């Protein structure tokens, strides 16, 4: 007897996708095989390593522990969705590169999605908080020291960027007001 299939509509990295899957299709497999978003990596496939982590409505979630059908109606962000559409890297991506937070890179998509969600909640973490935030993700290469440094550096980059935005807005306003005089 052939397996029953379900048509699902997923919103991934801001774009709508429609695909047809069996009810038991894992979200990780759906992202990689049905949608071609292979940035999400699969390591253990049972919730231990964190390599498959994506954001569901902004919260980190192991996509190997979720069925694709359950993700319908939620906003999914994969590692492919962290950089801006113009290619500008997300602060966590820049910081991982700057601080050598990766070697083989297999674990990196999970660390990036976890760290990006964490910094939304806690933009100025202590080292201890950064360490705790990434504590559920496994890396076989780096020994975590540079990953923790990268999370703290990403926090600095984010704060610098948000301080620059009001300044730029203020400068633009001053220019506009000056133009009317
Ligand atoms: S592949 Fe999902 S937690 Fe390891
Ligand atoms: S960089 Fe290789 S597993 Fe983390």
TrEMBL record:
<dbReference type="GO" id="GO:0051537">
    <property type="term" value="F:2 iron, 2 sulfur cluster binding"/>
</dbReference>
<comment type="pathway">
    <text>Alkaloid degradation; nicotine degradation.</text>
</comment>
<dbReference type="GO" id="GO:0046872">
    <property type="term" value="F:metal ion binding"/>
</dbReference>
<feature type="domain" description="2Fe-2S ferredoxin-type">
    <location>
        <begin position="6"/>
        <end position="82"/>
    </location>
</feature>
<protein>
    <submittedName>
        <fullName>Carbon-monoxide dehydrogenase small subunit</fullName>
        <ecNumber>1.2.7.4</ecNumber>
    </submittedName>
</protein>
<keyword id="KW-0479">Metal-binding</keyword>
<keyword id="KW-0001">2Fe-2S</keyword>
<dbReference type="InterPro" id="IPR036010">
    <property type="entry name" value="2Fe-2S_ferredoxin-like_sf"/>
</dbReference>
<dbReference type="InterPro" id="IPR051452">
    <property type="entry name" value="Diverse_Oxidoreductases"/>
</dbReference>
<keyword id="KW-0560">Oxidoreductase</keyword>
<dbReference type="Pfam" id="PF01799">
    <property type="entry name" value="Fer2_2"/>
</dbReference>
<dbReference type="Pfam" id="PF00111">
    <property type="entry name" value="Fer2"/>
</dbReference>
<dbReference type="InterPro" id="IPR002888">
    <property type="entry name" value="2Fe-2S-bd"/>
</dbReference>
<dbReference type="InterPro" id="IPR001041">
    <property type="entry name" value="2Fe-2S_ferredoxin-type"/>
</dbReference>
<dbReference type="InterPro" id="IPR006058">
    <property type="entry name" value="2Fe2S_fd_BS"/>
</dbReference>
<keyword id="KW-0408">Iron</keyword>
<dbReference type="InterPro" id="IPR036884">
    <property type="entry name" value="2Fe-2S-bd_dom_sf"/>
</dbReference>
<dbReference type="InterPro" id="IPR012675">
    <property type="entry name" value="Beta-grasp_dom_sf"/>
</dbReference>
<dbReference type="GO" id="GO:0043885">
    <property type="term" value="F:anaerobic carbon-monoxide dehydrogenase activity"/>
</dbReference>
<keyword id="KW-0411">Iron-sulfur</keyword>
